[in-house]
Design a protein that fits this description.
The chain is of the alpha+beta class. It has a single domain, classed as Immunoglobulin-like (Sandwich), CATH 2.60.40. Helix content is 16%, strand content 41%. It is built from one helix and ten strands, in the order αββββββββββ. The protein has one helix at 3-25, and strands spanning 31-32, 39-41, 49-53, 57-64, 71-75, 82-84, 89-92, 101-109, 113-122, 133-142. β7 (89-92) and β8 (101-109) form a beta hairpin. The protein is globular. The termini are far apart.
Length: 143
């Protein structure tokens, strides 16, 4: 193995460890912005357990592209615990036509309990078709 190959392998290993540690650090609660009680989730949070205080905001950001006809839709489940704060915001990655971007959902924890928060990425006019993508976290709201 050459020195360059050894360094590249070591770099990949270090990056893998750092990504794993970063993911483990936010596996149960998402990430919180400095000086904020808001919890931020993204597609990497899929499958996690999220603990919130009643009154705390949860912000979920997921990739999407409305020009394809696909959109993120919330499924029933956590609506008794989380109140969605308006329609999701969409931010494009650029000015070109058809470029993707991100949908941002904001929820407020309004009641204590446990329930799944499930979102599906699908075309609403296609009935009986499996979603292109899914996002699910288990919500635990406490006092």
């Amino acid at each position: 193995m050459t020195t360059f190959t050894k360094r590249a392998a070591l770099g990949r290993l270090l990056l893998t460890v750092l990504v794993a540690l970063a993911g483990a650090g936010c596996a149960s609660t998402g990430s919180s912005a400095k000086g904020s009680d808001d919890i931020y989730l993204d597609r990497h949070s899929d499958g996690n357990i999220v603990r919130l205080h009643r009154g705390q905001r949860l912000i979920v950001t997921l990739p999407g592209n409305p020009s394809t006809g696909y959109q993120w839709e919330e499924l029933p489940g956590a609506s008794g615990l989380l109140a969605r704060q308006g329609d999701p915001d969409y931010t494009s990655d650029g000015r070109e036509l058809g470029v993707g971007g991100y949908y941002r959902f904001t929820f407020l924890a309004v009641a204590t309990g446990k329930a799944p928060l499930r979102l599906v990425y699908r075309r609403p006019f296609e009935k009986g078709v499996k979603p292109m993508a899914t996002f699910s976290v288990d919500i635990d709201v406490f006092h």
